[in-house]
């Protein structure tokens, strides 16, 4: 694949704030972006706001990437924040006042990250960072805004999904950042409806690392059909509707095996549902498996299709543009999902690969067509591969992000 990267006007050291990554099991979708940034010669300093859980064992930081972790509150944190207050009293006071004037329901949470934001300001100066990029518009962006403004460096923000609807000082954060990236058109539109200045925003999805070449798999229409659902076991993922669909397919005489890759609070409940539906031989709980292992499953053609039965729970709790689907599509593996959140931006209706959410019969019908009709299966595989290569290649996505950070970039 020909690289789209353009040289930066000068070397860059980038601060990069996550919620927890590389600790815990979440935010795996950031890995391709971090690798892409480092591959352009950028020095990336990752600061997780909440370094919860163990350091990930399935990910090794590439060259030029370092991780600086510290607890949310400690004696060291308070001392560092006091030092930042002494050095920049006016900036720190102004930001504290801005937080105090925010939504009452969020004031305490924002004040809780104030010491870490001030500590991060010291870290940015000590590391001579040129730019700070923050993921999530909630308290991570609160800490990022504090750090960048106190340190006096430019910063930018990526908003995903729930953080838009939480609306935690979002208009002020967008006004403070040099740009705010939304990963979907729907997310940006919903933010603008909440008072965000559209002129300070851009839509640029989180991309996926696509294989150099990937032949679309074929399905002969017989034998065991292996279906993978790579998703945390959370209500928004809609697993129970998928189990209902699989039970219907089994009753229809289809030889299907469902692999559930992920952990979460619903595991016990879903295991009980599997037993109730008598699907014990048809459903396997794989637990939390390494991201690299999932990609090997795709490259070795150990699954025939990927499904994400997400649901809209209201209040902004719905799917963004799932990287889990992009990755499978890049390998030419057909995916099936629902018409929720921003999924239709990845899988428009013309592909015929989405159904209404919370609808087990509709999901079963689409999966049955994929299994019984080998011609439709082949068309879906090709359409998925071509669709994700149109816009979601990680090289192009990272390139746009990097050029937006470049101080010598042309006006967008």
List its salient traits.
412 residues; 17 helices; alpha/beta
> Helical amount among residues, as a percent range?
40-55%
Question: What percentage of the residues does DSSP assign to strands (E)?
Answer: 5-15%
Largest sheet: 7 strands, parallel
CA-CA gap between termini = 26 Å
CA radius of gyration: 22 Å
Structural class: alpha/beta
Polypeptide structure, described:
The chain is α/β, with parallel strands linked by helices and 412 residues long. It is built from 17 helices and 13 strands. The chain has helices at residues 31-39, 75-87, 89-100, 104-112, 114-126, 139-151, 162-166, 170-176, 185-193, 239-251, 267-276, 291-299, 323-330, 343-346, 360-372, 374-391, 394-405; strands spanning 13-18, 43-48, 65-67, 131-135, 155-159, 179-182, 201-203, 225-230, 256-261, 283-287, 305-308, 335-338, 354-355. The strands form two sheets. Strands 3-2-1-4-5-6-7 form a seven-stranded parallel sheet, sandwiched between helices. Strands 10-9-8-11-12-13 form a six-stranded parallel sheet, sandwiched between helices. Helix 11 (267-276) links the parallel strand 9 and strand 10. Helix 13 (323-330) crosses helix 16. It is elongated. The two termini are 26 Å apart. The relative contact order is 0.13. The model has no long low-confidence stretch (mean pLDDT 91).
């Amino acid at each position: 694949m020909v690289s789209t990267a353009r040289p930066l006007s000068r070397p860059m050291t980038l601060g990069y704030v996550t919620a927890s990554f590389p600790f815990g099991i979440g935010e795996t979708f950031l890995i391709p972006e971090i690798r892409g940034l480092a591959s352009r010669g950028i020095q990336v300093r990752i600061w997780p706001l909440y370094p919860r859980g163990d350091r990930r064992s399935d990910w090794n930081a590439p060259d030029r990437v370092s991780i600086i972790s510290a607890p949310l509150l400690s004696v060291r944190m308070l001392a560092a924040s006091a030092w930042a207050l002494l050095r920049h009293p006016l900036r720190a006071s102004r930001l504290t006042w801005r937080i105090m004037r925010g939504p009452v329901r969020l004031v305490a949470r924002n004040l809780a990250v104030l010491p870490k934001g001030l500590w991060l300001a010291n870290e940015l100066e000590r590391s001579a960072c040129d730019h700070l990029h923050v993921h999530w518009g909630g308290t991570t962006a609160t800490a990022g805004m504090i750090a960048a403004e106190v340190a006096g460096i430019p910063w930018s923000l990526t908003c995903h999904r729930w953080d838009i609807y939480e609306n935690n000082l979002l208009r002020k954060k967008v006004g403070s950042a040099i740009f705010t990236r939304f990963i979907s058109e729907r997310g940006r539109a919903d933010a603008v409806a909440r008072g965000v200045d559209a002129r300070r925003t851009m839509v640029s999805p989180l991309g996926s690392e696509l294989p150099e070449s990937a032949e679309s798999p074929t399905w002969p229409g017989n034998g065991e059909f292996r279906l993978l659902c790579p998703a945390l076991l959370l209500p928004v993922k809609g697993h129970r509707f998928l189990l209902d669909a699989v039970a219907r397919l089994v009753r229809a005489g289809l030889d299907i095996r469902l692999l559930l890759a992920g952990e979460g609070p619903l595991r016990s409940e879903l295991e009980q549902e599997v037993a109730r539906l008598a699907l014990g031989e048809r459903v396997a709980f794989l637990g939390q498996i390494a991201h690299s292992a999932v990609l090997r499953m795709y490259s070795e053609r150990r699954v025939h299709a990927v499904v994400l039965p997400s649901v809209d729970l209201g209040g902004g709790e719905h799917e963004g543009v799932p990287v889990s689907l992009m990755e499978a599509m890049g390998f030419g593996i057909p995916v099936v999902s629902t018409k929720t959140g921003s999924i239709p931006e990845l899988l428009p209706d013309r592909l015929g690969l989405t159904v209404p959410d919370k609808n087990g019969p509709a999901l079963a019908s689409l999966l049955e067509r994929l299994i019984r009709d080998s011609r439709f299966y082949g068309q879906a595989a090709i359409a998925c591969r071509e669709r994700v290569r149109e816009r979601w290649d990680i090289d192009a996505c990272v390139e746009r992000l990097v050029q937006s950070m470049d101080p010598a970039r042309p006006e967008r």
